[in-house]
């Protein structure tokens, strides 16, 4: 017979129930009583938490809202090029039957395309704009009065003309009436008048398509109702266009005319001998005639889906870009079943891709500031909790002496902190929603701050009572005691070394790959916390450096006169061992200096970018006549003007190397660069002096150095082939990006810098011209960029009429700089840095105040004792200031080093080019302003806190303080 084991589960449940009751008994009543006693400090902690949560939620929303504005602005700037254009090529048809449903078929295609577009892309596109357009051709003829006409034209059909145009003269185009007599047909019903049929009655009958012309364009070109022109397009026989009416657009700015400007006004003729360029309007009635008589390969059906810029959010750019790439790569998805697949073209994908890069950089910068703000706020909350526990130390130790467990102490602290944190965090979140209602953004950092606010009072209270009465004691044996203390030191050193190594690892990682996580294209919070980690590592260094420094000061104070140095250095040694106040101040100061240094670097980078792009006071881009340059140079208050041109060339016959050739006025350009204090390559002016054999001196980019050493480079110009005499390599090339070829151009292998006049002379020299172009007259380099410098540069450009010339863009350095600084992401980053610096200054002041209050009890007993010996209030304030000054100075030094070192090491990794407007222009710039601002904030806060504490201590009764001690 086996013995049965007694059931221990009821006893275990009783013990658990007893322990639970012991841990939670009267927790609510005790917490409520304590909260009433420390209501002011709890209100301060709640306000601090609410502000921190508010900032943690508001900062990313501000960046996202700025990114939204940046996307909208970028898409609007792209114009109609960002619209999704679907072109359905026409097919050759052998049908001789007029199809009156071609307009409705185009409308059906538009509806089908809208349905087949990917949903994300479709959500940001407007209703399609349908048009049927022929390729450009020449229409010529003679009126009855003998007036000759020859214009470049194309036929265009736009639906819905009833509400878009108003016919002011003549009538709207329609189908021309049939011939008066019936056309002869054969037995199969085929018209004998068809010129495509052998043996037709008329060898070349005329086919007429009725069209309309814009009223002012017609007057400009001398066209009128009744004018009939022969259209030179592949067709079934001779086709004439007959102008039946003149119209005006009801709303010239309507989207239907966005890419059909030649329907609204006449333009310059593309070739000599033509009067101008104009489009002729087809209607629903005349469109079938065009489709019948014109070869189908000569016209295209176009469906333009306009982009609704405001419908694209920054969080959707990647998805929209993916859909755009998909549609462009597989256009058959849009309109399946076609013999020839449609062609889809849009620049929207490129625009959004460029914006994604800018937004990624902005997110990285925002993450650094957000983590820094949260860290400073969390440390300030820890300081507030530390002060709260210090004020309750007597009660906590009494509870522990009466047998309270550490669990019960933690539970009572949590009962108090949890409702307070919930309310404060809710207030902060609600305020963020009221200021900027947006569901986007991460709650993780705000949640971490709330968790710190919940746990800090409980953890600090448990640490306060953990060793009281029942704590672990050191052995009496010296060797054992040293071994225990050695293990404690080893754990502390290990933790400190881990923090330092983690900070250094984060720094190295950010330097190598930036703040963006490569696999997810998101921000790595560990790397975003690099400045905070480095500030923590600096705190560790300060904690090890301050004791010997203070011992040295104590030895000096022992020989000094007065009691202030002795007492201050003695008490400072004790205050210096507190890590949390030093770390809080160090983090706040480091990020303050970081923000200030970054703002200065960004502003300086914007100045550098404006000088690199505009070069002079005014830059003019476009095809410019050389006489205009001479007129600019002759204008008053114009110091100098330089001209240039950029074009792509192959470096030698049979060579696979290509180069962007910068042909500039070398000497004037060098003078402009010197006038603006920019570095000038000493060999730049040498480009204007021809080398031996009349070769062209040149400077090349380093990427071409190896190839130029192997093969003598040469360029094919308008007059022939010229040989290049390479003087060396340089990186100081003028920026001519605005006139670079775009749209499928292959990137060049490097850049070549030559003098414009020198290469023109070399092209005109018969000895340097190729034999197969020996009879070709050389031509001067076409000027596409002019740099004008001087106080009257803008007025001179205006006087020359260049600011109103067609195809010419005038940019001043001040307007370019203002435009860059007003860009949404640039402005948001600068204001965010400045706002963060102000908030961190408040955190630093709060940390100092909390530190002064937390150490006021013991300091008050010391000062009260000294007051009984005759210590005056002024000396007491000096002692308090001297006690806390080393802590403040150490935090200022460590924070300033981190605040300057982080942007110095991470200038490239932070992606600050998003705010400068030009890649490679952000340079680390040091200024004393951020450090001075941090010093002023810390010293003023410390002085105010000392003065307030002195005023409070003045009301203390010395006898009670000495008898009772700390209250």
TrEMBL record:
Keyword vocabulary terms for this entry: Cell membrane, Membrane, Transmembrane, Transmembrane helix
InterPro entries linked: ABC3_permease_C
Residue span, ABC3 transporter permease C-terminal domain: 837-946
Ranges where the record places region Disordered: 171-193
Residue spans crossing the bilayer: 39-59, 368-389, 409-436, 442-463, 493-510, 525-546, 579-602, 829-854, 884-906, 926-948
Compartment list: Cell membrane
Topological relation to the membrane, as annotated: Multi-pass membrane protein
Coiled-coil stretches noted in the UniProt entry, renumbered to this chain: none
Protein name in UniProt: FtsX-like permease family protein
Species: Cellulomonas alba
The organism's taxonomic lineage, starting at the top: Bacteria, Bacillati, Actinomycetota, Actinomycetes, Micrococcales
